[in-house]
Amino acid sequence: MFRGRSLRPLVLLIVLAGAFGLVACRDAGEADYLNVSGKIFVFNYRIAQATYLLTLAKLRPLPDGAMLETTFENPEGGDPLIVRQTIWPMMEKITVESPPIKCVKANREYKVSMHLEDASGKLLQTIERKMISDVDQSVMPDKPLVVGPFYDPNPDKETDENSSAACPA
After folding, report:
1. Which fold, 34-146?
2. How many Å apart are CA 167 and CA 75, to the nearest integer?
3. CA distances from 18 to 6, 14, 27, 131, 159 (A)
């Protein structure tokens, strides 16, 4: 009699652990495929270039041939910047970087929109984010400090007058 009572909590514990294990391993179904795990403006003063940079974590398996189209607000004004890239099934972390940008203002919101599509073009997920820089692009030199693959000093030391004059207010 004593022996039967002591096994009952153990059996209950095993059954509950199994149930929790099944719940944790279930397919996410209609859940998101990707999640933004990091976002930053990169100011590379050596080459006088700024870019948007986002990292995405894969939450569940992606279909073969998935494409990610990212649209970045253009700080200079004008047409948005668009980057399309294939997302391979083996990728766990995805990095999205914009083309070089100019006229980034500190403490201003910039819109970034991502559309994940399958190989046939069917929309799987949309991600909208706002990015804010805590640094103004005025910290950047007008011209690269270095040139070439070995970071040789830039022989053209002259700076452009009013290089930020073309930036919107």
Report:
1. Immunoglobulin-like (2.60.40)
2. 8
3. 19, 6, 16, 42, 68
pTM value is: 0.77
85-112 exposure pattern, b = at least 16 Cβ within 10 A, e = fewer: eebeeeeeebebebeebbbbbeeeebeb
pLDDT digit of tens for each residue in the chain (169 aa)?
A: 455 456 776 666 676 666 565 554 544 457 899 999 999 999 999 999 999 999 999 999 999 999 999 999 999 999 999 999 999 988 889 999 999 999 999 999 999 999 999 999 999 999 999 999 999 999 999 899 999 888 899 888 666 555 566 788 7
